[in-house]
UniProtKB/TrEMBL annotation:
Protein name (database record): Site-specific recombinase XerD
InterPro entries according to UniProt: CB, DNA_brk_join_enz, Integrase-like_cat_sf, Integrase_catalytic, Integrase_recombinase_N, Integrase_SAM-like_N, Tyrosine_recombinase_XerCD
GO molecular function: DNA binding
A GO BP entry: DNA integration
TM ranges: none
Family (UniProt): Belongs to the 'phage' integrase family.
All residue ranges annotated as the Core-binding (CB) domain in the record: 104-187
Keywords, sorted A to Z: DNA integration, DNA recombination, DNA-binding
Domain Tyr recombinase: 204-376
Length: 383
């Protein structure tokens, strides 16, 4: 934000008109501001956006800052990128996507899209999602259409197309993220599509298991390795992606902690290590002798997340649990059972690695502590 010494203000926005980049200047009618705006070179008016515009370049941006300095507050929150580069991530390479053979009638991501993903060190999981989603978007339109000529209306129609295909809210949000990444990050036009609305997030409650059901699943694993996988998911509350990334040194037995490196959001944290699982892990280590990762499919190669899902699902099926059980249900159960046993909500937030306490508070809606003391009106006896 550029400071000012009056109550006047202007807002800068990124606009694309006819495939060209423009700076939009939005302000309430004011004689002083109108006079200053008219004094700018290359100034024009957009009927579509209903605001003053001029070509988007460094010279014009500097000119605006100098022209309104000390006269008006220049609101740039829609103009500059505030999100930092992910410094902590491992180096990302999307060469596998670059080297794909040409596919008849299919338009691949532009090279600058790949470059920006690598420079900002996005995780490979996010990169795959963004590339796939963005290519579906650009192939929805004519192959010859210039990407910079697409506007808010085009994106809204595309989102409407996804809704008509019964795509989930999560899918639509991922598609929007991939599209916005191109225009806002790759092309350097943050908040260009501020008018495109996201689906309202549905408030669904997490699915949880009882403690007895979890124990039954653990008892129905087929071998010690699978037993350790299921037990660790439940007793620590880690995600399956975090589980397969665990290395031998991440089990800190003298402090009874597990170190989770670069979990969701690329953040490190600690969570609980169970005494029961520690004993099993020691036996597991002597039998399986993992070299680098705690769980490996081959020496030095980490176990796959999909294999973890199959282990959990198969054990739950053998335990005769009717609904399909996922690794994330064990995480939900971990948090809910801690809450029911009196653990402070903020401590649970730390163990799970949630950024917001609001996310953790969701478990208060499924915890049953205290509910079993409420007498159902149907069961009340008449006096």
């Amino acid at each position: 934000m550029v400071q000012h010494n009056s109550n006047k203000s202007i807002t800068l926005k990124h606009l694309a008109i006819g495939g060209k980049r423009y700076i939009g200047i939005k302000f309430y009618p004011d004689k002083v501001l109108q006079a200053l705006v008219k004094d700018l070179s290359q100034i024009g008016w957009s009927n579509k956006f209903q605001m003053t515009v001029l070509p988007n370049n460094k010279e014009n941006l500097h000119l605006i800052c100098e022209k309104f300095k000390g006269v008006a507050w220049i609101n740039t929150q829609h103009f500059f990128i505030n999100r930092p580069v992910n410094h902590g991530n491992e180096k990302l390479s999307v060469d596998a996507y670059r080297k794909r053979p040409p596919k008849n009638g299919w338009r691949y991501c532009p090279e600058e899209y790949y470059q920006k993903l690598e420079i900002r060190k996005y995780s490979i999981h996010t990169a795959r999602s963004y590339i796939g989603m963005f290519e579906k978007y650009i192939n929805h339109f004519s192959k010859s259409q210039d990407l910079m000529s697409l506007d808010e209306l085009d994106i809204k129609k595309y989102i409407q197309h996804l809704v008509q295909q019964s795509k989930s809210d999560s899918y639509i949000n991922q598609a929007l993220n991939a599209i916005k990444f191109y225009y806002e990050v790759v092309k350097g036009m943050p908040n260009r599509f501020y008018d495109v609305e996201r689906p309202i997030k549905s408030e669904t409650l997490p699915k949880i298991l009882s403690q007895q059901q979890v124990l039954n699943i653990i008892e129905n694993t087929t071998n010690l390795k699978h037993r350790c996988i299921v037990s660790l998911l439940y007793s620590s509350g880690i995600r399956r992606g975090e589980l397969v990334a665990l290395k031998l040194g991440d089990i800190i037995s003298d402090r009874m902690l597990i170190r989770v490196n670069r979990g969701k959001g690329r953040k490190d944290r600690y969570t609980l290590l169970s005494e029961t699982i520690l004993n099993d892990l020691r036996i597991y280590f002597r039998q399986y002798r993992p070299q680098k990762y705690l769980f490996e499919c081959k020496p030095g190669i980490q176990y796959s997340a999909s294999s973890v899902g199959k282990v959990v699902a198969k054990a739950a099926e053998k335990a005769r649990i009717l609904e399909r059980v996922t690794p994330h249900m064990l995480r939900h159960s971990f948090a809910t059972h801690l809450l029911e046993n009196g653990t402070d909500l903020r401590q649970i937030q730390t163990l799970l690695g949630h950024n917001s306490l609001k996310t953790t508070e969701l478990y208060t809606h499924v915890a049953i502590k205290g509910m079993n003391t409420i007498k159902n009106p149907l069961d009340l006896k008449k006096h």
